[in-house]
Design brief:
The two termini are 29 Å apart. This protein is mainly beta. The protein has helices at residues 8-17, 105-108, 120-125, and strands at residues 21-26, 29-34, 37-43, 61-62, 69-74, 86-95, 101-104, 111-114, 134-139, 159-168. Strand 6 (86-95) and strand 7 form a beta hairpin. The protein is built from 3 helices and 10 strands, in the order H-E-E-E-E-E-E-E-H-E-H-E-E. It has 2 domains: 8-41, no CATH class; 45-168, Chitinase A, domain 3.
C-alpha cells in the first residue's frame, strides 16, 4: 500500500526533491520518509473481525492520513459492489481526532443508499467490496464533509468508518 502526504509543506518537499518513500512499519503503522528522515507516522485503528457483531474499533494515533485508506478486515464471499450499486450496510463512524464513535447503524438499523449518493470516501472506498465483508475506511476531509462539517462531524474532520456490507443491488 502506498499513501501520499499532501500538506502544503510536504508537497513542496516531494516535488523539489522527487525522493519520498512510504514504509509500512507494522500492519497498522505507516511512516512517510524523505531522504531517510521520518516525517510522519500514522497508526490506523485496529478493528475486530467478528462477522454479524458490531465492531470494536481502537483509537487512531498520530497524524491523520491525507489520502483514503481502505483495509479489508473480513473479505466477503458474496456479490461485489460497483460504483453504480445500491448497497445495504451496517457501519460505525468514529472521529479520528477524538477517537469517539459519532454514529452507528448497529443501534438504528442497516443503512441503504446508492453509492452515487454518499460522500466521495464511500464512493471510492466501497467498490470491489463483497457482501459479507468488513472494511475499514479512513477518509480525509476532502473526501468527507470538508470545512463545513455536518451534524456531529466537525469541520475538516478525518473520519474512520467500519462498514459491513450486507447487500448489493
Amino acid at each position: 500500500m502506498i499513501f501520499a502526504v499532501t500538506t502544503k509543506s510536504r508537497v513542496a518537499i516531494v516535488t523539489t526533491c522527487v525522493v519520498a518513500a512510504f514504509v509500512m512499519v507494522s500492519p497498522n503503522t505507516f511512516a512517510t520518509t524523505n531522504k531517510g528522515v521520518k516525517v510522519l507516522e500514522t497508526t490506523i485503528p485496529t478493528v475486530t473481525a467478528h462477522a454479524g457483531v458490531a465492531p470494536v474499533i481502537g483509537k487512531p494515533a498520530g497524524a491523520p492520513p491525507k489520502t483514503l485508506i481502505k483495509k479489508d478486515i473480513i473479505v466477503g464471499k458474496g456479490k461485489a459492489a460497483t460504483s453504480s450499486s445500491t448497497i445495504t450496510a451496517q457501519y460505525v463512524l468514529m472521529s479520528w481526532k477524538s477517537g469517539k464513535v459519532l454514529q452507528s447503524s448497529w443501534t438504528s438499523g442497516p443503512y441503504t443508499s446508492p453509492l452515487s449518493g454518499v460522500i466521495p470516501g464511500w464512493t471510492q472506498g466501497i467498490p470491489g467490496m463483497k457482501v459479507g465483508g468488513r472494511r475499514l475506511l479512513v477518509i480525509p476531509p476532502a473526501l468527507a464533509y470538508g470545512p463545513q462539517g455536518s451534524g456531529p462531524i466537525g469541520p475538516n474532520e478525518t473520519l474512520v468508518f467500519v462498514v459491513d456490507l450486507l447487500g448489493v443491488k
